[in-house]
Amino acid sequence: MKSMILKRLIFLLIFLSGGMMSAQITVSGVVSDANGPIPGINVIVKGTNQGASTDFDGKYTIDNVAEDAIIVFSYIGFRTQEVAVNGQTTINVTMSENAAELDEVVVVGYGSVRKSDATGAIDAIQAEKFKEVAAASPAQLLRGKVSGVQVTTASGEPGAGVNIRVRGSASLRSGNNPLIVIDGVPIDGGNVSAGGASPFGRTAPRNPLNFINQNDIQSINILKDASATAIYGSRGANGVILITTKKGRSIEPSITFNTSFGVSTLARDIDLLSPEAFVSTAQNDPNITVNDLGGRSYDWTDVILRDAIQVNNDISISQNSERSSYRLSLGATSQEGIVKDTGLDKYTVSFNSNTKYYDDKLTIDVNALVTSLKDEAEAFASDAGFTGDLFSAALRWNPTRPLFQPDGSYTFVDNQSNLNPQELLDSYKDFTNTLRILGNVSATLKLGQHLEYKFLFGVDRTTSERKSQLLPTFDFQDLAVTDPDSGEERLGRADVSTTNSFSRIFENTLTYRNTFWNDLNFNAILGYSFYDYNFDGNSVIARGFVESQTDLINNLEGAVQTEIRIDDPDDGNRFNEVFRNSYDVQSFFGRINGDYKRLLYTATFRVDGSSKFGENEQYGFFPSVGLGYKVFEGEEGLLNNLKVRGSWGITGNQEFPVNSAVEIGEFTGNGGFATVTAANPDLKWEETTSFGIGVDFSAFSDKLSGSIDYFTRETENLLFIKTLEANQPGPSVRQFINLDGTLDNSGLELSLNYNVYQSENLSFDISANAAFLGNEVNIPGIFEPTGFVNGQGLSGAFTQVIATGEDLYNYFLLDFRGFDENGVSLYTGPDGTPVSDGTAVPVLIDAQPLPTVNFGFSTNLSYKNWDFNTTWYGVAGNYIYNNTTNALFSRGVFNAGNNVPGDIANTDQAVGDPLAASTRFLEKGDFLRLSNVTIGYNFNDAILETLKLKSARIYATGSNLFVITSYSGFDPEVDAATAFGRVSQFGVDYLSYPRSTNFSLGLSVSF
Amino acid sequence: MKNRKLLFIAMIISAGMICSCTDLDAEILDGVEITNDGSGSSIPVESQLQTAYQGLRTYQDQARSHIVSEHTSDAIVGPTRGGDWDDNGVWRQLHVHTWNPLNGFIRDSWNDILSGVFNANQVLENNPSPQQAAEARLIRSYHYYFVLDMFGIMPFRELGSPLTQEPTFFERAEGTQFVIDELESIINDLPDRMDPTVANKDAARFLLAKLYLNKAVFMADNPAGPYTFDAGDMNAVIQNVDAMTNTLATDYWDNFVPNNSEISPEIVFASRNIQGGDGGNVQSRWRMGNHYNQSPDGWNGFTTLAEYYDRFDPNDIRINNPDADALTNSGYNLGFQIGQQYGPGGPGVGTALEDRNGNPLVFTKEISLLTEGSTLETAGVRGVKYKPDYDNIGSPDNDYVLARYSDALLMKAEAIARGGTPTGGDTAESIVNAIRARASQAAITGSLDDIYAERGRELWWEGWRRNDMVRFGTYLNAKELKSFESGPERVLFSIPAGALSTFPQNPGY
């Protein structure tokens, strides 16, 4: 009896201390995939940081492994495998690529997890999918592929800025883009290319991802909900995009060469009157006096557009050996724009290496990226106003009027609203050169079995210079300055501006991993980071040059007058003068996560302090919690995997200009001294509280997989600029404040992936995603005009409001009811009847510019060595305000001798009918776009053998082949990237650089 | 061994902690932090005073208070000409008194004038000398006059209060008294008038005269009237005008030529523009009416009304000045332009101009709110109030007149007619006729109606017409292009919609 109890006690003790007391053995083996052994695979004892990497021959050895431990074999892009040791000393494993979605490894903030273990809503796109899309920029790779993420390029210009919206717009001001992190280092998403000013308005911001070559990216991971993004604290409110670059993978040095060649043309045209039609329409109408009936031929596309060529070449060399791996790549891209004299040339050098020392105890990673961009632009200002820009000048030009006079000089009409587009094209030049260096070094040190310390230091340095000029032979209103010596008037203008930015990041993290009681996996990370950002710039405008001068940019001293101050009260960023600013952010963050049997858990926190915030509100706290439960896992039959998850968290947004919280004065250059900011020491970050639940599943033997998510996001302390009016007497600059009330977004996301057919020779997959979004403004007492339009006779006119209880950016317009018997527009009057006497007032319309449905789908077909892929995306539920038609196309404009579409010239509208902002120009913005079609051929093994290649693929791609929409303008994707006045603009078509259709051929080979 | 390992680890960790743990103070690298508590000795008061003077330039603009208020009177209209000048109807709304709180130009006038007040406050917060303080207070009082006249309530900030504190405001009556008291207290610290672009004693007296004359309007229980003018106030008007040291210029147009401040003894207070250099938008006074094909070219916008034009003798030099420079360079007489227009050289010498559609450029008296047909571009009599500076059209020398002595004399005449005691042997009639004599016009009586009409002629397009119409009770009446009587709330502008979170809206809006 006694001995029985004792024996049981001993067994109990042994049982309880099982993890510590079982025998330790050495485990070794070979890891290979279909092609042979793979080096560099991570082999880890689960629940510890004990592990190794496979060597040249795919071999690994781990000492002191507990007999009942589990060994995990993982690497990004491969299906993770777990094998129980069970006393075995040799474990060989075969890894497979093309992981089923749930087994993919996804990168999260400061680490990575398998998708099946994640509690947050995370989507990942791997490099294989990029092959299907020849995108002009990495941001476009996401289009239509990720539910709840809407990517819109601001225009068709090469390098144009993008709006990326993850789960709706949470901010009223322009800070709505997600945080972008490259290899663990957050980069500044702001405008690092020099802005400056030209006579044709500001340049639109450039795409922050212009600096990366698409072929250097291994994966893009999008973190959508709070439990994934809260660890980025005051910058995570709009989602986080994590980009991982390619690293070395193969044993022998591997060289990859990609080349492609493409042609672009205008995607869609508007039906303006041809010269013959113009003459006959004008002659039929006795009320119109039309000049210059001459029967010449003119087509605006011939004057300013061309077929543009893109060439892209890059080469990379990489190697992964036992102790170290590296990858070096060089890329050169030349992308012409479809408008003459525009384009983007890009040269990139990127290098990364990973080296292990002291028995894998110390790992040093180095990443460096150097990019040089040369941007050439023309006079495009997204402006359909009185003077307009090159685009509106070309559309307006009377088609019967010759561009040149018989003596060879340019036809001159006036210097205000009838600019000669050929002369403007030839007289205007605009170059921007940017050099960006992104680099980081990190050291990871293993401290014992469970603990790891990592130190990261990163730098981001950009210098950029923009030079533009307008020749003195071009007569343009208000440009003339009087030479004080001769009294003559001189024309011509040159602008030079430079911007430099420099940021540094220091990060320390401590990671702990352990497994308790065999079932509770526990990972914890604790970190501190310091981020420092500096930027400065200066600009000069020179006016008044002698007519024979043609190189103004490099001879600014030839000008009559030079200025270094460009007053721009609408621009909160004050980039257009001489300035120097800096700010710091310091943060503490931490996370615990792991799983217990079928239960998954994550909790994070972050404390962020920033010198941008007011001195009364310097630190913010951002927690989050996520839980998940694997209802089914790896089951056979109908439903194979089912995971439910939920999350809650608080994230922040701090996108406002530096020094908005303090009062600064400056000398104004004419003897004065004025206040240039309005202090607010209570200024703090915007806070978004998100809640989400989701289901990830796979069914029908893993043929069908997908997720469904429901989320709500409530944003409070919205950053806004107080009206000048409410702060009087006050400085004539705006004060940043945080508003009372909230902006609410909610939605449903669906994403599905279906493997229709799979056999040895043929496979066919379809993926589809859709997001249904809605929003509401719950800010008391707000009625903020936005959606400003520009055009002759439309200054100050606006089309949308942000109003309490309505949708965000709800349309607010005159309600158009046709024309009366005299051809004057009728609008709904105060009592509901149509009136044309000027007493009508604008009303709230049941329409808004943000899509309620975003969807996309792709099809992937492969047959033997061939593959065929298509990608589609579209939106529904939004309305577009056609500013182009409002401003440029009306009877009055036709009467003044300008070209308009045929249906406008033939309406009943009276010639003197004023152009007002009304529902006449409000159109549905639903569309479906065939974004990409790719056909590829992978050379078969026999050919590869003879050519001594590892792989080779040739492909043909067509982008933006057609779009199905009822919108009558150039393109239904119209989101401008600039903010007018105090808020972002959405849904107004400002006549931006036209979009193009692109065909290209490419070849990828690797040796 | 273990110790060395620990040491190595400790070194790496401490290396990681350098350049961390900061106090997160905002660093200002390109400006000066303003603390508004008088301790900013590095901030130059003279420069702030300069900025305060520059705030007076807002009155030169064609889309700000002086011209915006002329639009609401019977002096100017901005018709919509097809595709031009619609601007969401804001100009038409001003003329027919249907503006709403979202009107952009009313809002911009509010912002510009009150920022001018703020800039004057900045001087006062920074240890100014007594004369600098007096100058800043005078500038502030000029701005406050128009705030009281146009908007009623008078927004106010305590000196030294932080910008996050909500501003307060005075009611119209209290505000009027505040400005009167302020002007009376600074008179001795102001310099005598040597240069009218610097705040001076005469400017203070002018403003006091204006305020006492309009006190009945500003302090009335009902802003739309009726007004009872107190004899004591009228005597104060006369006293202040008598104390002024100006005299009438011999030539009316001396007040509006490029070197006006130098040659005219009549200008009391003006906003300085420097030829070829820094200045306000005084060129709007010839560009706003001129057609695109005239020299200098203009914006073909604003015209006067037929009924206003008809109150003048067509040969009155104030609206028909055959200035030699103007004829040679612009082809027209200064003042109002009517009829066929010519290129440089004028009638008989210059080419007969056409509009952009090939019609003869003949300005007609007849005007409508929406022009059309052959007179789309040509309807309406145009005005050129200042002589263009032909030496530098784009950056002219003309200083903009903010206060003029003939206005002061007419105020004295009105004060006498409203019950004040005449002084110096002047009667209302003698003063009015002295002013008319300068323009070679025949004599009229000194009745209130005649004084009102003469003010409309003498001070055309100078920014006082609205104020006069309100005081004489004609502002709300039907007029050309407005066939109905406006509601009584229209004597005051609506407070801009964006300001309503801080200030109350005027009754009736």
Please, could you describe this protein's structure?
The complex is a heterodimer of chains A (1007) and B (509). Mean pLDDT of chain A is 82; it is low at 11-21 and 568-575. Chain A has a 22-stranded antiparallel beta barrel. Chain A has a 5-stranded mixed β-sheet with strand order 11-16-17-14-15. In chain A, helix 7 runs antiparallel to helix 8. Chain A is built from 12 helices and 57 strands. Chain A is globular. Chain A is mainly beta. Chain B is mainly alpha-helical and 509 residues long. Chain B starts with a helix and ends in a 38-residue tail after the last helix. Among the domains of chain B are: 42-190 and 476-509, Serine Threonine Protein Phosphatase 5, Tetratricopeptide repeat, CATH 1.25.40; 289-388, no CATH class. The mean pLDDT of chain B is 88. In chain B, the strands form 5 sheets. A 3-stranded antiparallel β-sheet of chain B has the order 7-8-12. Chain B has a two-stranded parallel sheet with strand order 3-11. In chain B, strands 4-5 form a two-stranded antiparallel ribbon. At the A-B interface, strand 23, strand 25, strand 26, strand 27 and strand 29 of A face helix 1, strand 1, strand 2, helix 2 and strand 3 of B. Strand 29 of chain A pairs antiparallel with strand 1 of chain B, so a sheet runs across the interface. Chain A: Keywords: Cell outer membrane, Membrane, Signal, Transmembrane, Transmembrane beta strand, Transport. Chain A: It is found in: Cell outer membrane. Chain A: It is a multi-pass membrane protein. Chain A: One of its GO terms (cellular component) is cell outer membrane. Chain A: Residues 115-240 form the TonB-dependent receptor plug domain.
Write the layout of secondary structure elements.
The complex is a heterodimer of chains A (1007) and B (509).
Chain A: H1 2-16, H2 18-21, E1 24-33, E2 36-37, E3 42-45, E4 51-53, E5 59-66, E6 70-74, E7 81-84, E8 93-94, E9 105-108, E10 111-114, E11 122-126, H3 127-130, E12 149-153, E13 162-166, E14 179-182, E15 185-187, E16 217-223, H4 226-229, E17 240-245, E18 254-266, H5 275-284, H6 300-304, E19 308-320, E20 324-336, E21 343-357, E22 362-376, H7 390-396, H8 421-427, E23 428-447, E24 451-470, E25 481-482, E26 489-516, E27 520-545, E28 561-563, E29 579-596, E30 599-610, E31 619-632, E32 639-653, E33 664-667, E34 673-675, E35 686-699, E36 704-716, E37 719-721, E38 736-738, E39 742-758, E40 762-778, E41 783-788, E42 798-803, E43 810-813, E44 816-819, E45 825-828, E46 834-835, E47 843-844, E48 853-863, E49 866-876, E50 879-882, H9 883-888, H10 891-895, H11 902-905, E51 922-924, E52 927-938, H12 941-947, E53 951-965, E54 979-980, E55 983-984, E56 988-989, E57 996-1006
Helix pairs in contact in A: 7-8
Chain B: H1 2-17, E1 27-28, E2 32-33, H2 45-54, H3 65-72, E3 80-81, H4 90-95, H5 104-124, H6 130-150, E4 154-156, E5 168-170, H7 172-186, H8 201-218, H9 231-243, H10 260-263, E6 267-271, H11 284-287, H12 306-309, E7 320-321, H13 324-330, E8 334-337, E9 339-340, E10 362-363, E11 370-371, E12 382-384, E13 400-404, H14 405-417, H15 428-438, H16 448-458, H17 465-471
Parallel strand pairs in B: 3-11
Antiparallel strand pairs in B: 4-5, 6-13, 7-8, 8-12, 9-10
Helix pairs in contact in B: 2-5, 2-6, 5-6, 6-7, 6-8, 7-8, 8-9, 8-14, 9-14, 14-15, 14-16, 15-16
InterPro entries (chain B): SusD_RagB_dom, TPR-like_helical_dom_sf
Protein name (chain B): Starch-binding associating with outer membrane
Keywords (chain B): Cell outer membrane, Membrane, Signal
